[in-house]
Design goal:
Elements: E1 2-13, E2 16-22, E3 37-41, E4 47-51, E5 62-67, H1 75-79, E6 87-90, E7 105-110, H2 114-126, E8 131-137, H3 146-150, E9 155-161, H4 162-165, H5 170-175, E10 182-187, H6 189-202, E11 208-212, E12 228-232, E13 237-241, H7 247-252, E14 271-276, E15 279-280, H8 288-293, E16 296-298, E17 303-304, E18 308-311
Parallel strand pairs: 7-8, 7-10, 8-9, 10-11, 12-18
Antiparallel strand pairs: 1-2, 1-6, 2-5, 3-4, 3-6, 12-13, 14-16, 14-18, 15-17
């Protein structure tokens, strides 16, 4: 756990607050890579994940930006009450949305989804790799970091406020890509679904990586779930996970401090190593290759395909 101080708290768009977090003694912070996020442990006890949007080469501070969601789960409202000088705790950064080598990068951002993509675009520009950035939002005043994106060299930036220009033409953005390109998308679910559809229809050769604000909808029938056992190898405890109860909740009944944040399978806070057994992966974080490897699972949503799992807990 990192103990940090809020060096500054500033509005960067309507409803968006950016926090600069540093070590109280000014020491260097742990390294991170573009696409990473950290978990903020708020004074109320809530834990929320936020993407880092700064320059990953700057070890003096972490920067996160938070959209105020009045009807949300309470985390954003609490963050917006944090003032400069406040003490906060955070996890070390983790990255489940990392940049992979590509001939050209397409970044598709919707609203506050700009945060991880800004860090990525900054790094891609530094490498002098070609990039296209399509940034949509409800209105221009609600779109953070437009100036920072506009200052990046070597790419093509499209700023598309919906109230002025409608929705981005995602099919055109995919169609213009050269061979070997990759797309990275972060934003609300309708935008991500549209990106997957546009990419699949126009350029099925282009891999599309997503970071979601909420879990993707599923047609899975929860009434079909069955119970199973989970052995916690380091704790020498075996717990029964009944139907309708998550592994996380069953484990927490015996080990209350197990980490989690989103509890929707989208942030990787509860990622746990699998030592034996076959998980039933239901997260939106791990890739298909990582699912097939069965080395890790998100215990907040995933279950078991075998009667017993052994986890590194």
């Amino acid at each position: 756990m990192l103990e940090l101080v809020v060096r500054s708290a500033r509005a960067v768009a309507t409803g968006v607050l950016s926090l600069e977090l540093a070590a109280p003694d000014g020491a260097e912070l742990p390294q991170w890579s573009p696409g990473a996020h950290l978990d903020l442990h708020l004074p109320s006890g809530l834990v929320r994940s936020y993407s880092l949007h700064g320059d990953h080469r700057d070890r003096a501070a972490y920067n996160v930006a938070v959209l105020h969601v009045p009807d949300g789960r309470g985390g954003s409202a609490e963050v917006h009450r944090i003032a400069a000088g406040s003490a906060v705790s955070a996890s070390a950064p983790r990255n489940a949305f990392a940049l992979e080598p590509a001939s050209h990068y397409l970044f598709l951002a919707g609203g506050i989804g700009v945060t991880p993509l800004l860090a990525m675009a900054r790094e891609v520009a530094r490498r002098k790799a070609p990039w296209t950035f399509v940034y949509g939002g409800r209105s221009r005043d609600r779109m953070a970091f437009v100036d920072a994106l506009s200052a990046l060299p070597g790419g093509r930036l499209q700023i598309i406020p919906q109230d002025e220009a409608g929705l981005p033409d995602l099919e055109a953005a995919f169609a213009a890509l050269p061979a070997g390109a990759a797309a990275y998308c972060c934003g609300p679910a309708p935008m991500l679904d549209a990106a997957l559809t546009a990419g699949g229809r126009t350029r099925p050769d282009v891999p599309v990586r997503l970071e979601r604000f909420a879990a993707a909808p599923t047609e899975r029938d929860p009434s079909a779930d069955t119970g199973f056992e989970v052995e916690l190898a380091r704790s020498n405890i075996t717990v029964t996970v009944p139907a309708g109860v998550s592994i996380l909740d069953a484990v927490r009944a015996r080990i209350p401090g197990v980490m989690s944040s989103c509890e929707q399978g989208i942030c990787s806070s509860c990622e746990t190593a699998v030592l034996a057994g076959v998980p039933d992966h239901r997260d939106s974080v791990l890739t298909a290759k990582e699912h097939a490897a069965n080395d890790y699972m998100m215990i907040c949503v995933s279950r078991a395909l075998t009667p017993r799992l052994i986890l590194d807990l």
